[in-house]
């Protein structure tokens, strides 16, 4: 069990009030009635900032807080013999670090891909909050079931899809989630700040494979990628390549 070495900084600007939070409809407190938001806000300790490439927590550390990602991108991953497997990418509204028991070490690591802002909630306070407002506990269970479903789809993609199908699957999922979060108004400004190494570690393929796949998708006019950003140009074609039904 490792002692946590937090790289979070307490945000210096005025904290965002819960009742005007732009991601509340995507987050844990969506189910809280507006007249109770001032009460639930008291359970938040701080809003934090986390610089890009800094860790929120590492595998094996004991986490005494859980977090709602307010702004930015976070990557969750595990390591084995110095090899990294990316599990998923967290976007605004996602809930991170929840363990159920604060004495259980984290079974994965979380690192910021971009500069981030997070809202912190101590484990003991969350338990009290769930007791007094059971709807929040139900919401957390629903969020965890959603994340589990995404994880199962990821496993199926890594195990059964070709390299180009697997990369396309990731990009389609992120495209849809970005629009759900309000990060993109249309396909022209839908970009993902991911390196090819991060895509490779998610899809379970080599950097050479990723480079070839991205070149192939570029040549097909499906996407453009430059400066660590991937722009989706033809989402319908990308869905076909990923073998995903149209929504």
Describe what this molecule looks like in 3D.
- By secondary structure, the protein is an alpha+beta fold.
- The chain contains 7 helices and 12 strands.
- It folds into 2 domains: 9-147, Jelly Rolls, CATH 2.60.120; 161-242, Winged helix-like DNA-binding domain superfamily/Winged helix DNA-binding domain (Arc Repressor Mutant, subunit A, Orthogonal Bundle), CATH 1.10.10.
- Helix 4 (163-181) packs across helix 5.
How would you summarize the topology of this molecule?
Blueprint lengths: L8 E2 L26 H5 L5 E4 L4 E3 L7 E7 L2 E7 L2 E8 L4 E2 L12 E4 L3 E7 H10 L1 H27 L2 H19 L9 E2 L3 H8 L3 H13 L3 E4 L2 E4 L2 H8 L5
Antiparallel strand pairs: 1-2, 2-9, 3-8, 4-7, 4-9, 5-6, 5-8, 10-12, 11-12
Quick recap of the structure?
Helices cover 36% and strands 22% of the residues.
Unreliable runs: none
- Domain count: 2
Strand adjacency order, main sheet: 1-2-9-4-7
Largest sheet: 5 strands, antiparallel
CATH H-level superfamily of the largest domain: Jelly Rolls
End-to-end gap: 44 Å
**How many H/I helices?**
7
How many DSSP E strands? 12
Determine the fraction of residues in helical runs and give it as a percent range: 25-40%
Q: Which properties best describe this structure?
A:
247 residues; five-stranded antiparallel β-sheet; alpha+beta; four-stranded antiparallel β-sheet; globular; Arc Repressor Mutant, subunit A; 7 helices; Jelly Rolls; 36% helix; 2 domains
């Amino acid at each position: 069990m490792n002692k946590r070495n937090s790289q979070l900084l307490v945000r210096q600007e005025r904290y965002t009030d819960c009742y005007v939070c732009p991601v509340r409809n995507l987050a844990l407190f969506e189910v809280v009635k507006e007249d109770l938001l001032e009460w639930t806000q008291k359970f938040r300790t701080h809003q934090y900032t986390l610089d890009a490439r800094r860790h929120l927590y590492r595998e094996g550390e004991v986490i005494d807080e859980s977090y709602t990602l307010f702004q930015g991108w976070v990557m969750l991953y595990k390591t084995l013999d110095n090899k990294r497997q990316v599990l998923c990418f967290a976007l605004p509204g996602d809930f991170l670090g929840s363990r159920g028991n604060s004495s259980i070490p984290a079974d994965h690591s979380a690192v910021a891909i971009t500069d981030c802002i997070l809202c912190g909630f101590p484990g003991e306070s969350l338990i009290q909050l769930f007791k007094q407002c059971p709807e929040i506990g139900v919401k957390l269970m629903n969020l965890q079931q959603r994340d589990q479903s995404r994880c199962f789809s990821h496993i199926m993609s890594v195990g059964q899809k070709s390299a180009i199908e697997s990369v396309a699957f990731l990009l389609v999922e992120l495209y849809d989630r970005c629009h759900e979060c309000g990060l993109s108004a249309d396909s022209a400004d839908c970009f993902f700040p991911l390196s090819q190494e991060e895509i490779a570690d998610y899809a379970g393929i080599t950097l050479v494979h990723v480079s070839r796949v991205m070149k192939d998708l570029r040549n097909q006019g499906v996407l453009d990628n430059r400066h660590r950003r991937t722009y989706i140009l033809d989402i319908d074609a990308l869905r076909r390549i990923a073998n995903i039904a149209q929504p």
